[in-house]
Design goal:
Blueprint: H1 13-39, H2 46-52, H3 54-82
Length: 83
Amino acid sequence: MSDTTQQTPAPGDRFVKTGGIVFIIGALATLVTVAPLFLGSDPFPTAAYLVSMLMGVGFLIAGAGLVRQIAAQRRETRAAVEG
């Protein structure tokens, strides 16, 4: 028998998921922009290098989601202790 429970998403879950997706896109773009260095072909235009900056942006978005989750957990704990 399977016991499935519905878990409510934490406040920062969407930020963490979105940040992970943006990070992966940036990581793939980084691999693509570095490949011409090893293959000896012409480098990509500047726009390709700008897309690889998404790796850092995704990291920051995910970090903001984690900070938001930590803040929510602290508020819940403080409310449980006081009340």
